[in-house]
Design a protein that fits this description.
single chain; PmbA/TldD fold; 2 domains; 5-stranded mixed barrel; 24 strands; 20% helix
């Protein structure tokens, strides 16, 4: 594969490119799902191809091909140079890359059990077992389960001398139980909504999640929600479980810190950002308890944003994003680093596959836990009157990532430190900086989970990629609650 990549680099150099890199990517994915006792979908797909990215006349050019013979590879490199020269006619300034020492390296996701070594029959048997357990609860009208595995092997070679081989492996699983009664549908998901939990692990993740063991409880909660009281409206202290807090981080911190959005280079799907450059190291983003990092390193955990090197050969790093409440960092690339006064990329440029141009993407954007021991039950016990919300149901946020509203699957009213009643249709809303400044308590490391978000969309053409978000349950003071799903 390195020889194939070198064909591309040699052709790009002969055509006059001042910089070139080539990525060859081989991907395999397995996706299985069931619905009400039947297999809903099943696929096992593979793809391989390459892309060439060049700078010529001070502008970028990009081209990709599924063919790896020498003629096709050289033609692809030539096309990338042609595109760069065409782009140069309308450039506002020359592309400027932050220096990066070229690396020769091998990296692979640690795992115990290769998920592709487990048969499809065994996978489906597990899903049908969970499905049957969900539907055994009276009142469940729909049960859905899913199981997903991905392997991506990549070779990256650059004209600066980088030569990197990476193999990334991920697994994901989850299910949902729906109960339809009257004119209302209630839903409970496990271990999270929108596909469950995903991490860079092997099949061992599936065993760790204890899927079948939790199925009956989840189904019973979905049915019980029909008899629960409507979430009250008003201002309350709000406790979010770690999975909902992970999505809150994704939408109100992760997207606005993407430097291409800030600079107006990208606005698809999630819009731009309220975090203009003047706010760096001046904005009070949250309370003193808020410490957020963008960490792609393996030691942070097996998140979907974990890797050895990004897609322009920059090693995984940890960037402080919010430090004791102060906004301290963006997600950057070699091209954008100089705009924030940095002399090195933050290592966040990634692409969905071989036929997509790398762009700034979230790594693992995580809220660090409290250092002093604090469990969720202790946090509840220390809350006089509040509402606990669990598992995302819906979200809405403006294109600057400033005003938001989230709905959750289930809530619990807390009075005098105890859960006193289940609540249906809970929701909350706020303004990003006001919300994070209202945080007054975070649970400790024992309650911290690194959640996987496998379906983050960005760019045109669209790229869907995985990100990670670590969080422990946390409490926010005086939050507007209950307006999203008003009772009729």
């Amino acid at each position: 594969m390195r020889q194939v990549a070198n064909w591309a680099l040699d052709m790009a150099a002969r055509r006059g490119a001042s910089y070139a890199d080539a990525r060859i990517v081989a991907q395999r994915s397995r996706a299985l799902a069931t619905k009400n006792g039947k297999v809903g979908s099943a696929s096992d797909a593979e793809s391989v191809g390459m892309s060439v990215r060049v700078i010529a006349d001070g502008a970028w050019g990009f081209a990709a091909s599924a063919k790896l013979d020498r003629g096709s590879v050289e033609a692809t490199a030539g096309r990338a140079v042609e595109i760069a020269r065409a782009s140069a006619r309308v450039k506002q300034h020359d592309v400027r890359l932050a220096p990066e020492k070229p690396v020769v390296a091998e990296w692979a996701t640690p795992y115990r059990i290769d998920p592709f070594s487990v048969s499809v029959d065994e996978n489906i048997a597990l899903l049908l077992k969970i499905d049957a357990e969900l539907r055994s609860v009276a009142g469940i009208t729909l049960a859905e389960t899913n199981l997903n595995f991905n392997r991506e092997e990549q070779w990256f070679v650059s004209s600066e001398g980088a030569d990197i081989h990476q193999t990334k492996l991920s697994a994901g699983a989850g299910y949902a139980a729906y109960a339809f009664a009257g004119n209302e549908i209630q839903k409970r998901s496990y271990p999270n909504s929108y596909g469950g939990q995903w991490q860079n692990k092997g099949y061992e993740l599936i065993d760790e999640l204890k899927l079948a063991e939790n199925a009956r409880r989840i189904a019973e909660e979905a049915v019980a929600l029909h008899g629960a009281d409507q979430c009250p409206e008003g201002k309350f202290d709000l406790i979010l479980d770690s999975s909902q807090l992970g999505l809150q981080i994704h939408e109100s911190i992760g997207h606005p810190i993407e430097l291409d959005r800030v600079l107006g280079m990208e606005a698809n799907f999630a819009g731009t950002s309220f975090l203009t450059l003047d706010k760096l190291r001046t904005l009070r983003y949250g309370s003193d308890l808020v410490n957020v990092v963008a960490d792609a390193r393996q030691e942070h955990g097996p998140g979907l944003g974990t890797f050895g090197f990004d897609d322009e050969g920059v090693p995984a790093q940890c960037t402080p994003i919010i430090t004791n409440g102060l906004f301290t960092g963006y997600l950057s690339s070699r091209e954008t680093a100089h705009t924030i006064g940095e002399n090195r990329s933050g290592g966040t440029l990634r692409a969905e596959g071989w036929n997509r141009l790398p762009m700034i993407r979230m790594t693992n954007i995580s809220l660090l836990p409290a250092e002093k021991p604090l469990s969720l039950e202790q946090l509840i016990a220390a809350t006089e009157h509040g509402i606990l919300m669990q598992t995302n149901r819906s979200w809405s946020i403006d294109d600057k990532r400033y005003n938001f509203q989230f709905g959750c699957e289930i809530g619990w009213e807390i009075k005098n430190g105890k859960r006193v009643r289940m609540l249906k249709n809970p929701s909350y809303s706020g303004i990003t900086t006001e919300f994070w400044n209202s945080l007054d308590a975070i649970c400790s490391r024992d309650e911290w989970t690194l959640w996987g978000t496998p379906n983050c969309g960005k760019g045109q053409p669209q790229q869907v990629m995985g990100t990670g978000h670590g969080a422990a349950p946390a409490r926010f003071q005086g939050i507007k609650v209950g307006s999203a799903y008003k009772s009729s």
